[in-house]
Amino acid sequence: MAETNKTATLLLDNKKIELPIYAPTAGPEVIDIRKLYAQGDVFTYDPGFTSTASCDSTITYIDGDKGELLYRGYPIEQLADQSHFLEVCYLLLYGELPDATQIEEFETRVTRHTMVHEQMHNFFRGFRRDAHPMATMVGVVGAMSAFYHDSTDISDPWQREVAAIRMIAKMPTIAAMAYKYSIGQPFVYPRNDLDYASNFLNMCFSVPAEPYKIEPALAKAMDRIFMLHADHEQNASTSTVRLAGSSGANPFACIAAGIACLWGPAHGGANQACLEMLREIGTVDRIPEFIARAKDKNDPFRLMGFGHRVYKNFDPRAKVMKESADEVLELLGIHDNETLKVAKELEKIALEDEYFVSKKLYPNVDFYSGIILEAMGFPTSMFTPIFALSRTVGWISQWKEMIADQHQKIGRPRQLYVGAPRRDYVDVAKR
Ligand code: CMC
């Protein structure tokens, strides 16, 4: 943390409190309020953490006004164009791009961990077939701590490392198994001769009855989707992982907590909700009706895939995703996709509408991702599990950063209590 020679002065009932100010590498300066309670006997109030930095981090940076996203300093557009997912995983985990030997070793390590404990198959079979794959994933990932005891000691850096590799390697297997189970097909074992994305497609779409041909261009598009979702600094699910981890909980339990948080429609669940919304709109002539609903304060409806806490400009991931949607549909020979037409027209109308312009609401990563995933053959219920598998590396990198931080403390927010003051118990007969 770079200290500045600046301080912020808070005047509290004529008592002056000096608060240190820190300079970030990029972004707004930060006022350190850690001693505020001790010195001033007050708390700060910030529900939703709209103005509060919960940690310092070196992993990801977002400039919401510019619409910029950097992983370890590298722009997402460059990575999406020139890198690949496992290289991005290495970058997020270790801070630097790997050289040729490092990436080869890393890929080998991840590949050697792709299978899950055979007994986990029984665990899957305990779920109802119609369970949402996210429900299955929350349960199965939490249960990994029961299968991999030798990587749950968080005080051992080596065990933390093994847990990270296991999670990155096994998450595609778990997501694919959740899918196969939900459609009544046999589980497909991972294939270590395939790259990460191709292996995932194979585990989802191949069946024992006939060979499955992996289209390299689709595998590339899948890989790009993984990269675009890999990390996003202190979002709700990442903060959940950090908070769970701050108590010393094991990494598998922490990632399961992150998956649970991601599921909500305001977060990762928006990709499923967005495609369902686009389908419900159905044709471009119905767009004005939905725009009007989104603007109506008395209607809870929101345009899914629109708006973001941090981006007050185009989400850079949405731009890449839109290009990818065009490429994938072209590749699959889908020339008249009504959902894509609705999406593009909806985006155009919303971007010109005073309501969306004044509130700086732009398409986010979830606006176009569903169109690509649907074209690839995934049902909507698999959209959020794919987000979860992509985000696992971000969660685990942030968790590792937190555990290694010497100043780390259990996360314990304070509150503004507005309930009843102290009162005496009244016997039921007298109430
Ligand atoms: N449609 C209509 N109005 C909206 C929308 C939307 N999608 N998003 C925000 N607004 C309005 C909101 O009603 C509020 O209006 P007012 O100031 O008049 O009360 C204003 O814009 C600010 O919204 P907010 O809810 O205070 O902003 P937030 O930062 O708390 O919420 C958000 C951010 C992403 C939860 C929200 O924009 C939203 O619900 N979007 C739809 C869900 C979605 O696409 N989520 C995916 C986010 S990106 C992927 C991820 O991170 O998981």
Automatic annotation (TrEMBL):
It catalyses: oxaloacetate + acetyl-CoA + H2O = citrate + CoA + H(+). The keyword Transferase applies. Keywords: Acyltransferase, Transferase, Tricarboxylic acid cycle. Signal peptide: none annotated. It comes from the Bacteria. The keyword Transmembrane does not apply. GO terms for molecular function: citrate synthase activity. SUPFAM superfamilies: Citrate synthase (SSF48256). Pathway: Carbohydrate metabolism; tricarboxylic acid cycle; isocitrate from oxaloacetate: step 1/2. PANTHER family: CITRATE SYNTHASE (PTHR42871). Belongs to the citrate synthase family. This is Citrate synthase. It comes from Acidimangrovimonas pyrenivorans.
